[in-house]
Amino acid sequence: MRILTFAVCAALGLPVLGAAVFTSTPVYAQPKAKAPAKKKPSDAKKATRYSAEVTVLHANNSGKGIDKRIGDKPELKKPPFSAYDTYEWIKQDTLPLKKGQPKTVELPNKRVLKTRLLDVLPNDVLKISTSISRPRGEKYLPLLEVKAKAGRSFIVAGPPYKGGILVLVIRLVAEKA
Amino acid sequence: MSEYDVTPEQLMSYVDGELDGADLEQVEAAVEGSPGLEAMAAGLVQIGDWVRAIEAVPGPNADRDASLTDRILDNIDAKQAPTAAAAQLRLVAGGTHGDERLDSSSKLVWGVAALSAAAAALALVLGGAPAQTSSPRAYVPVVVPAAAGSDNTASADDEPDREGDVAITAVDFGTSQGSIFVVSAGGTSTPVVWLTDDAASGGGTDL
Predict the structure, then answer these.
(1) Fewer CB atoms inside 10 A, N or C side of chain A?
(2) Virtual CA dihedral for A150, A155, A159, A162, nearest 10 degrees?
(3) ipTM reported for the complex, 2 dp
(4) What is the pTM of this model?
């Protein structure tokens, strides 16, 4: 009987339990115990709203300089961005970040940027995924995963647009309720 | 067929309704004659019910996020699984059927094993699958482009994952080409994904 018991336990992924019986170690049933109160993952995250602020810029060499609406972006004066003397502010969109609710925004070249919140880590550190699709639905940038603290930015640049390129400055924002 | 002759595989097949003919009759008789086997079969049935209940959760495209987890947990609570489990344990440990072929500790193990297997199955399901990419290609490694090889650039891999920082953890360029680097300016380091493709290099279409 013990051999059969051990075999069944092993088959169920309980080799330790099977061994306990095999060595005559008593195994007691736990009384009907109430499972510890489950802290639902969403409880601690309801107080803060997260979003991705997508600023679309057009980099070109038309000699117009950096649009004042862009604000202070010293990165644009560093290589390789300094290869363009003009940065025009095209638009800015704020995409709410909620798990399971990807958001999209159409870019000036008809490509579609999609953002998705993957996880919220301690200290307002977010893990998001981003992708860019061509108008016909083909993936242009299939996947870009970023982990960043709210308030920080990353840049996606290079899609050609009107003799220059598009520069997407994506900043993660945390808004306390 | 006695309970000693019933293998776990046979019992699972019996529970799943995959046995027929003589095999079905033999296993059925063994289960009916053994409280231990009966408890084990009941545990396997419970596992199947839980898994099917989880699979029935709507939203096939939903991420395994908090809302899905909440729904699963609520579903389990609604079925009062812990209560049923405890009752099952008491039945096996009580041994009121007078069948002495199983000693009490072994009977108990049947029930505990079934419930533990149920918990393991639930943990496997609740554990979720890793995020899937839209492409089977592996992530490309982080590279530093030659044009960015100045003092103002660095590989994203070289950047420590310290608080307040930002890091690119995975990239799939698909059919495009591109590079990843970091531009440091104004006291901050900003990761950059720079895409290049035929249209960009050749000055062709903007799409």
Answers:
(1) C
(2) 100
(3) 0.73
(4) 0.49
